Amino acid sequence: MRSFLRNNSLTLVFGTAFLATLTAQAFVGLADFNQRQVAEGFAQVSFVQFVTSSEFGVDVMENWQSEYLQFFLYVFGTVWLIQRGSPESKPVGQTGWESDKDQLVGPHATEDSPAWARAGGLRLRAYSHSLALVMGVIFLASWFAQSIAGRVAYNEDQLGQLQAPVTWLEYVVSPDFWNRTLQNWQSEMLALVSMAVLSVYLRQRGSPESKPVGAPHDTATGRTG
Amino acid sequence: MEDRTAGTTTGRLAPRALLAVVVAGLLLTGVACGTLRSRENAAVAAARDFRLAVATHDASAACALMAPQTRRELRQTTKLPCVRAMGAVEIPAGRDRDDVRRVDVFGGQARVEFAGDTVFLAEFPTGWRVSAAGCTPRGDHPYDCTLAGV
After folding, report:
1. Which pTM was predicted?
2. Sign of the alpha-carbon torsion through A183, A184, A187, A188
3. pLDDT digit string, tens, across residues A101-156
4. Per-residue CA distances from A204 to A198, A207, A225, B29 (Å)
5. Per the CB < 8 Å rule, is B106 touching A156?
């Protein structure tokens, strides 16, 4: 049990932190929503009503989609894009899918390689891109969910202000949808560029996200401490 | 060897897990659609009851079907108790049970369109209550309503 906790501490700690912060978001979101309901003369809602509402759903989904977009872009973009000196980047000159030998696939697969890496054809092609594919699919699914929940939450506000509701097609070209989307995308892009550039010059001793403290700035691309 | 066994088990479990997710999704969609339909029916029933109360000059029933904010606004505007104020505002009435053109329910808000009138409602623990009535659309602007608490 102790070795399981130690071997999976990264997943367990951040998984627990995720559930804790999602729960905290639900409670403060409920308080915020009910404050507005009282101010506008409408009824307050219960915790269960709130966490199953589109108001809560859109706030969660708009953040999820942007996080998965960020990881999709980073996983896929770093195949081709380089930042010299960054531990997040491959060395200059190694862009692209790389050779079967480097990737340990086909005849270069080892006994420990995953079954689909040892297989050929479609299974190998799918498995070769499975991380980016899954990230991309979750991004698209959560962005779609944002549009569904966002429309309901937007229309609830519209009706509360005696204005006509909009269709899904009208909503996905509306300022509300794109404001929610772009305010999340811009922060994710900033995080990506910050990580790529700052990790060239700054260090965190012991972190695999950083180069070794004594590594030079403009070389040691892709080396982690 | 152990890895291969694990891979085979995972391979068998994956379609079942996918099927479970699809079935759960369909069930949830079915429940959501059923819930929405019953909430639409409840909103329409409240709007009809309100219009019928106005048509039959049952002011106390009409006032009871109003949202608290709407009742308050009516009292402040007319300087009269709600029951007496009902005679001072012109609200389209209706006795016909089949004159609903369209109903929209989003969260705790609803709009019911009748021939010649639109009624807005909000959901309270006691049921749907009329937040505005006698409303006509004004393009991108809020509806123009003879009775409103917004």
Report:
1. 0.88
2. negative
3. 999 998 899 999 999 999 889 999 999 999 999 999 999 999 999 999 999 999 99
4. 11, 6, 8, 48
5. yes
In DSSP notation, A139-184 reads HHHHHHHHHHHHHHHHHHHHHHTT-----HHHHTTSHHHHHHHHHH
Q: Which residues on chain A are in Cβ contact (under 8 Å) with B131?
A: 41, 160, 162
Residues of B in contact with A160 (CB under 8 A): 109, 122, 131, 150
* Distance between CA atoms of residues B130 and B43, nearest Å: 9
Q: Pairing state of beta strands B109-114 and B117-124?
A: antiparallel
Alpha helices (H) along chain A: 2-7, 9-39, 47-51, 54-80, 100-103, 115-118, 121-128, 130-160, 168-171, 175-201
Rounded to whole angstroms, the Cα distance separating A105 from A99 reads 9
Q: What is the ipTM of this complex?
A: 0.85
